[in-house]
Amino acid sequence: MTKDIKFVETVLRDGQQSQIATRMPLEDMLPILERMDQAGYHALEVWGGATFDSGLRFLNEDPWERLRTIRKHVKNTKLQMLLRGQNLLGYRNYPDDVVEAFVTKAVENGIDIIRIFDALNDTRNLETAIRATKLAGGHAQAAISYTTSPVHTVDYYVQLVQEMIALDADSICIKDMAGVLTPHTAKELVSKIKQITDLPLEVHTHSTSGNAEMTYLASIQAGADIIDTSISSFSGGTSQPATESLALSFKEMGYHTGLDIDCLTDIANHFNGLRNKYRDEGLLNPKVKDTEPKTLIYQVPGGMLSNLLSQLKESGQEELYDDVLAEVPKVRADLGYPPLVTPLSQMVGTQAVMNVMTGERYKLIPSEIKDYVKGLYGQSPMEISDEIVETVLGQDVSATERITVRPADLLAPKLSECAEEIAPYAQSEEDVLSYALFPEQARDFLGRREDPFYDVPVQEVKVTFE
Ligand code: CO
Questions:
Q1: The Cα angle at residue 159 between residues 87 and 133, in degrees rounded to 5
Q2: Quick one: 334 exposed, middle or buried, by C-beta within 10 A (0-12, 13-18, 19+)?
Q3: Separation of 148 CA from ligand 1 center, angstroms?
Q4: Once rounded to an integer, what is the mean pLDDT over residues 90-110?
């Protein structure tokens, strides 16, 4: 009996985010979109993650306009996006009215499937986004932020999937943003999830450690339905395994992929040209194609390794790299083992750098870490010790300031206030939402668009990893 495998093509989002810091402009995608629509993909991942931020800040491109244009050219294949639950596409929690409006508009502008995750796997942070997606007629996929730690066992994840089923998720994703899921564990995890639900199960990993193809094979053999791959031009290294290679191998093993190999070849030819151009321009650093098994040894995402190194290089303290690398798992343990995904990866990394640079642990503490310990990002996977709570928050405030409710319950509606603030430049509710998510960047983008004398130039974009 042939079994179906579905492929999600990531080159327009995660593939280019992982290898060229999300700097592919829409015009580079346009000529190939119709051909991509004919390839037989289950979905194209095109939006979310850092694409929104990068469009406003660096490309001077309206992310909503990008989505509508892609939708116009991709008439049949589903369009997919990545959403950080209550954080939407930003780095903090937004009130429910902003989450509801954003999700509704994303579906209205062309998104079919929304992959929703929370950095802490606190499912309370998924509730509003899942409900809003379904209400808008979209497919709500709930994603596990996969990581390893003493608390993150297979049983822990199976329990998490139970909670996602209870929230009425339409499908489940194992999202291994760091590329630390190994074939052996993938087999066990997929089998156990499949034992408790018939919902479609998708596996998302990165090639960083060199294990990704084996992990996909083990996952598919254990019953997974969908895998995420990137067309070869932007595959491997920090990105996903190559679409064409896996399509050919799985076909030979008797699986039905639905993919048209001639079509994939045309798509690869288009993106090969772009890859070569970006490489010549220095936008694609050849290092992103390297294999980095250290990610398995330290359990630190590849993108975070390179970010830490460049942070230390900038301050001329490269020799501290190994010390910082050893400090990251300690900070993570102190904080109750948060998965290292945006925004927690940046927060834990910064704290580790500060601990090493000052020569005294927690001498300097960023305000985001204090908020995290207060519970403002959600429940930490493991309880944080009283000692760390006191170190971070001080003795007096530790008891009173910590919260246990769903963080967004503390946030008042904000959309009408945002609409008033950005009224001089906003032409649509989409503009208001851009402003609600990224006030400074959206004001500058909309200002440049509406006012010929607006003179704030386009900024650099920060690389994020998910
Ligand atoms: Co990813």
A1: 40
A2: buried
A3: 16
A4: 96
Q: Band of the pLDDT at 399, cuts 50, 70, 90?
A: low
Judge whether 206 and 18 are in contact, CB under 8 Å. Answer: yes
**Average pLDDT over every residue of 249-253:** 97
At residue 464, the pLDDT reads 45
* pLDDT at 411 > cutoff 90: yes
For the entire predicted model, the pTM comes to: 0.94
HSE at residue 16, side-chain half, CA atoms within 13 A, is 25
Ligand 1 centroid to 17 CA: how many Å? Answer: 9
Distance of CA 68 to the CA centre of its chain: 21
Q: Is 51 exposed, middle or buried (0-12, 13-18, 19+ CB in 10 A)?
A: buried
At 331, which helix (H) or strand (E)? helix 321-334
Give 204 Cα–ligand 1 centroid separation in angstroms.
7
Task: Give the distance (Å) from ligand 1 centre to CA of residue 13.
Answer: 9
Instruction: Residue 5: name the closest of 210, 227, 272, 163 by CA.
Output: 227
Ligand 1 geometric centre to CA of 179 (Å): 9
Q: pLDDT band for 398, please (50, 70, 90 cuts).
A: low
Average pLDDT over residues 277-294: 91
Ligand 1 centroid distance, CA of 230 (Å): 11
The protein residues having their C-beta less than 5 angstroms from ligand 1 (an ion) are 14, 177
How many angstroms separate the alpha carbon of residue 207 from the centre of ligand 1? Answer: 10
Q: Provide the token pair at 411.
A: 């946030």
Can you tell me the mean pLDDT for 327-355? Answer: 94
Contacts of 173 (CB under 8 A, 6+ apart): 115, 117, 141, 142, 143, 144, 201, 202, 203, 204
Measure 18 CA to ligand 1 centroid, in angstroms. Answer: 8
Cα(47) to ligand 1 centroid in Å equals 12
Q: 132 C-alpha vs ligand 1 centroid, how far in Å? A: 23
Task: Give the largest Cα separation in the chain, rounded.
Answer: 66
Cα–ligand 1 centroid distance for 206 (angstroms): 6
Find the 424 Cα to ligand 1 centroid distance in Å. Answer: 37
Q: pLDDT exceeding 90 applies to what percent of the chain? A: 84
Q: Is 179 left (phi over 0), alpha (psi -120 to 50) or beta?
A: left
